[in-house]
Amino acid sequence: MGIGVSRRSVLKGSAVGTVAVALGAKASAVPTGSADIESPLIFHSPEFEPFCDELPSLSTLSGNEITLTAQVGQHAFHRDFPSSPALSYRSGEIGGGYLGPTVEAHSGEPIMLTFENDLTGHPLAADMDMTLHGMQADFRANPPTSLHLHGGVTSPESDGHPELLVMPGQAAMHHFSHGQEAAHLWYHDHAMGITRLNVYAGLIGNYLIRDEFDTGKLGNPLGLPAEEFEIPLILQEKIFTPTGAQNGRSTILIPEGSWEGGAVGDVGLVNGKVWPELSVARGLYRFRIVNASSASVWNLHFSNMMTFWVIGNDAGMLDAPVAVNAFRCAPGERYDLLVDFTGLSEGSTVELRNDEAPPLPAAVIGEVTMPLFCRFRGDSRRGFTGGVPSQLRGGRRQRDVLAPLEQPTVIRTVTVSQQLELRNPPAQMTLNNLTFSTTDVERPRQGTVEQWNIVNTTPDPHPIHLHLVNFRILGRTPMRTLEYLIRHPQPVIGNKWTPSPDGFEAGPMIAPAPWEAGMKDTVRVDGGTVTRIIVRFPTEDELGFDPDAMFDRLPSAVMTGGGMTGGDQAHQGNGHHGMSNHDASNTGRLQGYVWHCHLLDHEDHDMMLPYRIVP
């Protein structure tokens, strides 16, 4: 059954409702009869009728030489609204308008990807904050880009470093060696200070690595649905203007052109359409899901609470399918699902929904749960009739089971925090209480196994992503955060702050959920917890490239002591942090990778740090 939904939906929790009413929120009726709150402090999308558009099928791209071009185009997000400006990746005649084609590659078979920036302006130019790290006044007319293959085992010069800016009219070469097993990666923009706007506007695409076990073809050794029964789903949420265009702002409290600290949407999108519908055959489907939102963790489930199976996450397959009725998915995470529609009779429907409330800062100003993504309608076709596999690793024609967790030789504490101050715009977010321009970076050694204790002193979840490496989640431990902060007062930003969480535990460590127990590159770090991960940092011999190699910026993005030069004309930075120089001996070069929060507003200001994997 379908229902009309919008931001005017149920407020989750009496405390949030009390705050919203205190701020002047007003009530009105919704079709479901639920309590309806519309806050005057936030922007609201127009009413969209759900299930008007078919779920788009994303184009597929393959080959050992690929070109992707970032372009400005037009896209209609819903049947009842006109096309409006958006960004996309195009490859020749494939793609365009919004998002990018799905790239298919094979494990161990390298490709050369040429990335071109052909942007002529930006749909969200007015929302650029020129005080953020690295921002330049001319970026509104000439927006930079930097393509990152998220989850890729990629050499540093091809990783999409946020300071390796590709300006309009420029191109960059990316060599992807694919030295990893089959997995669902994704590519997206990663340019310093503007990532949230470039990604929100459409610079996103799926990237599927296949291997001899997970071939993507019917009859594959794992017995998985494939071809028309394997469907990538890019999940997003947005706020739209009254005309159906993308709105980069969420609240009237923050002036246009100022960083907001985390914007939550009120409308769900799948593959670029608002609340679409997919006609499904009777049988098993494989959905490759990526949370491509800017700020929201979702608790995903079906409207009838039916059982489905998680078979893999960020970096590949689990040992066996995990039966669930719901699972949490944070920005940057990917999950591989099997969903059985055999019992969905012709004409019957079921919806993919979310019931996780927004984080507290958004809830305080009246944001409510974004409840819906799409609907599936049963038809008369006979679909994939194979069953759910009993195992995915360790059997005949399968990869080995996941190895036991390794014993770390180094234990490293890192922190996720926000200074306690009242500001408008809000206070910046940090890792280790540092800004990106620091030279006090983590330097794990190649070939070592480390345990990272990620201490989150904020009340909200933050998905932490480490470039290049995969890791396993050891567990999450609740903390007596206030006592920790009193005992270890947080200094002024710019002074490293990584006090040990030992002695501040508020309960036993909770093991990862079975569906997140595989190899990961992004981990949800819940508020008021220490999240422990086990990371092995590979060696140059294992990788086939030097992870600590220096590499050059593009000629028009050479750093000159806090500014940026473009050709013969210097463009001095307005950002209050300046641009970083992690290789002090040569201002035109970069080194290493980054780790950051994947809440994109946080990443842009300034919850991202470089790190190096040293010999």
From TrEMBL:
PROSITE patterns: TAT
Pfam families (UniProt xref): Cu-oxidase_2, Cu-oxidase_3, TAT_signal
Gene3D superfamilies referenced in this protein's UniProt entry, alphabetically: Cupredoxins - blue copper proteins
Domain (Plastocyanin-like) ranges: 142-212, 419-536
Stretches the record annotates as Disordered: 563-585
GO MF entry, a single one: copper ion binding
InterPro entries named among the record's database cross-references: Cu-oxidase-like_N (IPR011707), Cu-oxidase_C (IPR011706), Cu-oxidase_fam (IPR045087), Cupredoxin (IPR008972), TAT_signal (IPR006311), TAT_signal_bac_arc (IPR019546)
Lineage top rank: taxon: Bacteria
Family: Belongs to the multicopper oxidase family.
NCBIfam families referenced in this protein's UniProt entry, alphabetically: TAT_signal_seq (TIGR01409)
Protein name: Putative multicopper oxidase
